Amino acid sequence: MPLYNSYPLIIILILFISAFAIPLFKSIRMARIIGLSAAGVSLVLSVLTLSGVRADGPYYFRVGHFAAPWGIEFHIGIIEGLMAVLFMTVSMAVLWFSIYSIDHDLTKKKIPLFYTLVNLLVGSLLGIVFSDDLFNCFVFIEISSIASCGIVVIKDKKENIKAALKYLILSSLGSGLVLMGIALIYSLTGHLNMASSHEVLVAIYPEHSRNMLIAIGLFTVGLGVKSAMFPLHTWLPDAHTYAPAVSSALLSALVLKAYVILYIKIIYRVFGMGIVSELPVLNIVLLLGAVGMIAGSVLAIMQKNLKRMVAYSSVAQIGYVFFGIGLGTTMGLAAAIFQIFNHAFTKAALFLSAGSIIEKTGKKNIADLKGIGKEMPFTLAIFAIGGMSLVGIPLLSGFNSKWNFAVAAIEAQRVELLAVVLVSSLLNALYYFPVIINGYFGEESLEGKVYKNKERPVKELLPILVLVLGIIYLGVSGGGLLSLIEAGIPAIK
Questions:
Q1: Beta strands in 3-124 (DSSP E)
Q2: At CA 352, angle to CA 348 and CA 354, rounded to 5?
Q3: End-to-end Cα separation, the chain, in angstroms
Q4: Which end of the chain, N or C, is surrounded by fewer C-beta atoms within 10 Å?
Q5: Mean pLDDT of successive 10-residue stretches along the chain, which has 493 residues
Q6: 63 beta partners
């Protein structure tokens, strides 16, 4: 067995052990060193894992003594490897940026706890991505839910506690529905292993089609709540708005995506397209995705608070992901996974730059940020690149993402859906462009502003620039990632 086969388990162990080691030192400096070191080592191991599966193909890794279906195992293919690299890259950038920003949001006593929660969160999210066992996925879901609520409430203000409670209640509801779906699958198949469950489900489908419809409905609603599928997104705006900027970046860029990847695995690996194509679920997912693309943008236009606007934008962008899944084609799925990359880099950059603007100016409302482009030209430039990417400006990742969805809709012979992509893009422009234009232009807006007097030093912007490089790279060379995703999709099915 090649050495890299064990790296996914080692990554999770490193993140979990480091999370519990951080409180032992009771030092902010040590918390940062341990948090960043664990993320850095995990990123290297993730890259080596991806390199290994690209060379040798997907594999199963047995965790413990017993083989599946009795024991626990991971399934690692190109998609899982890509997700590991994405999660660790974004985590590294956010943790790096937190060195310069987290003191503004948290008391010194809470800072080590933040790094503990982040490592627990990222480790559990990767556990969801890697695991081929439904119950273990549920265990990792619960750990990630607690850690997610923790990085929201850690700011310890009234609005954070309220947002975290709302998130916890709705997230628990989602978890409960997922658990009911798992129980139903187990009662039908006697297995929790995904591959073993699939074999039995295919054999018994004619006699149990209604039960399978209920099970997949439970997974769709449960994971829809946790991944903010419209109209199940109601926890997201408050949680993302009031959390520290670094927490918002992680929640939007990573947390939502792990649950989407689990949903894809359940659709393709547990049920299989042979069963799912007989059920109406993908048409419903497609409809909710399309409505989310429009409604999320409309709600974003109505917001006055900058972070809240970016938060509602996430509802629209997650709509794209479910739109691709709902098409039910290989190209649709590839477009959805590409969008996960686009949104992770873009939304992390947007939340970190928006958080910087709010931190340096003390102003949260969009109307109060006119002329901010003179005071913080580089930070607003980063925000502008993220906003223009989501609008679909060429040479940025969002353009390639929208192009992929257009191609997927045409290939699926659903040309009418191009209108949804087009309208959503126009709506994106209606809430991002005013912030950019009013920030940089207008004599009245710029009057009395001092050039760069509120700008962060370049070294503090470097972590966000790493994310921006990801946006530009996927805009210029997105074909390479799309080809890699398409090569990895057969291993999911």
A1: 59-63, 72-76
A2: 115
A3: 24
A4: N
A5: 92 97 92 96 98 96 78 92 98 96 91 96 97 95 96 90 93 96 96 94 94 96 96 92 94 94 96 94 97 96 96 96 97 98 97 95 92 94 96 96 97 95 95 94 78 92 97 94 96 81
A6: 72
Residue 61 forms beta bridges with which residues?
74
pLDDT of residue 446: 77
253-291: pLDDT as tens digits: 999 999 999 999 999 999 999 999 999 999 999 999 999
Alpha-carbon gap, residue 199 to 473, rounded angstroms = 40
Total residue length of the chain: 493
Beta strand 59-63 with 72-76 is antiparallel
- Name the CA radius of gyration of the chain, rounded: 22
Whether the full predicted model's pTM is greater than 0.85, yes or no, is: yes
Q: Which amino acid is at 419?
A: A
Question: Which residue do the tokens 């990417």 mark?
Answer: 389
Neighbours of 305 (CB within 10 A): 17
Q: Is 73 strand, coil or helix?
A: strand
- Three-state SS string across 454-483, please? CCCCHHHHHHHHHHHHHHHHHHHCHHHHHH
What pLDDT, on a 0 to 100 scale, did the predictor assign at position 26? 81
Amino acid 272: pLDDT: 95
Question: Residue 394, class by beta-carbon neighbours within 10 Å (0-12 exposed, 13-18 middle, 19+ buried)?
Answer: exposed
DSSP-based helix, strand, coil % in the chain, nearest 5: 80, 5, 15
CB 315 within 8 A of CB 296: yes
Say if CB 272 and CB 198 are below 8 A apart. yes
Predicted local distance difference test score (pLDDT) of residue 63:
83
Q: Give 441's contacts (C-beta < 8 A, 6+ positions apart).
A: 373
Distance from C-alpha of 417 to C-alpha of 406, rounded to nearest angstrom: 8
Identify the DSSP state of 72: E
Quote the CA–CA distance of 84 and 82 in Å, as a whole number. Answer: 5
> How far is it, in rounded angstroms, from Cα 68 to Cα 62?
8
Task: Take residue 316 and report the two structure tokens written for it.
Answer: 């629209």
Contact indicator for 107, 146 with CB cutoff of 8 Å: no
Only one residue has tokens 């993320």, namely 39
Which among 193, 179, 190 has a CA at the least distance from the CA of 138? 179
Which pLDDT belongs to residue 191? 92
Quick one: pLDDT at residue 277?
93
- Tell the residue number behind the tokens 């040309």, with chain if given: 415
What φ, ψ does residue 155 adopt, rounded to 5°? -70, -20
Tell me the C-alpha to C-alpha distance, in Å, between residue 160 and each of 103, 300, 307: 17, 21, 14
Residue type, 279: L
